[in-house]
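Researcher: I need the complex structure. Ligand is pyridoxal-5'-phosphate. Inputs:
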Amino acid sequence: MHKITNYELSKRFSAEVHNYIPGGAHTYSKGDDQFPVNAPAAIVRGKGAHVWDLDGNEFIDCSMGLTSVCIGHGYEPVAQAVADAAFQGTNFQRPAGIELEAAKLFLETVESGDMVKFAKNGSTVTTAAVKLARAYTSRNRVAIAREHNFFSFDDWFISTTPCDRGIPAQVRSMTATFSYNNYASVEALLADNDHDIACLIMEPVKFDPPIDNFLHKVAALCKDRGVLLILDEMISGFKWDLRGAHNFYGVKPDMATWGKGIANGFSACALTGRADIMELGGIRREGDDKLFLISTTHGAETTGLAAMIATIQAFKQHNMIASNWARGEILKLKLQQIIDKHGLGHTLQLLGYPCLFVLVCRNASGEIDDVFRTLMMQEMIAHGVLFQGMLYPTWSHQEAEIDHIAMAFDASCAIYQKAIAAGTTAQLLVGKPAKAVFRKKI
Ligand SMILES: Cc1ncc(COP(=O)(O)O)c(C=O)c1O
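Model: Output:
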């Protein structure tokens, strides 16, 4: 397979961007420290599952904009709906007509909650859910699943990570943790009558399936203790099921949060929930204390809502959930066959569901290893696949794209195998390894 070697403009971009943008990107997980040195520094264009970098190199995209691009880059029906909305005006001094249309369609589609509040970022809606829970229960603390690595860039979550600089210590004490799939850890948290926990927040599923009826048992316990259950569908929504992973597993949260892939990469996020909770953010209860829920200038920008409507229509029209699962099955199978062919079963592991899975990279001793992971990324990128460990099959990942990923993986496994045999990536990995996003020191 032809290897990509032209990175001149990428190098210039990387040399300059950190002078203007702290971190060199607006999402830490897109930053230079997350990739090998041969990664394209910036993407200038995307079409379907293909993206092009500054130097004109073409790649197959595996993560699709942090999994927000749920159909494909530049997907015409969505882009057209956005353009139409833009020409009709994006922001008015009163609600836009599309707000009611979008609210009805979204609630009817996700079959979760009675009311919805839209926003531009996932962090806005998870933080809003926490605020509502505190108001509803008159309790103060939040409990999060410690295995789930991101809920918000706001302090109630970031204070629990090693990157707690700039956050008062008192804030950290307001967030407790429990373990996903460990019901006893949830029970322990709520055992004391003074627990002061307003809500539990977790993703319904990540790469491990819920076991031993975990979600249902937690929902029942929360109900019993008057604690609200928030299920964060930011990643799982529109992947496991159009109605979210909680409906896939048949569990009902008090609130759910949505974003990323509900508008094919456009900025539209949502908080859904029970009417008696959501109505606390309303203005119909004259005389009651007012709760300032989500109120942002751009929250209901017409373009984002138009993108969401067109995305939902496309998913329904083409039955995209089923096709994404089917494509994911094929991709996963092909990759597994390649792992087996190279005898790498003990060091490379595909974890997760066909609709979203990751490659876990281990060293020769079987330990998860970022240096070996970087080598895999380097080789995949060199073979034209923009790969960061995650595989998100979409409508745009058709046979040719799946075959390309598989061929690149085959070539990359041959190199990986050499590193495993040598017990080191030295001589093979160029530059520094990728680092964890959440770390104490830069
Ligand atoms: C599970 C989960 N919740 C919440 C968020 C926050 O969303 P946003 O980045 O849009 O603020 C993310 C983003 O990565 C996420 O993965």
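Model: Summary of the prediction. The first strand starts at residue 43 and ends at 47.
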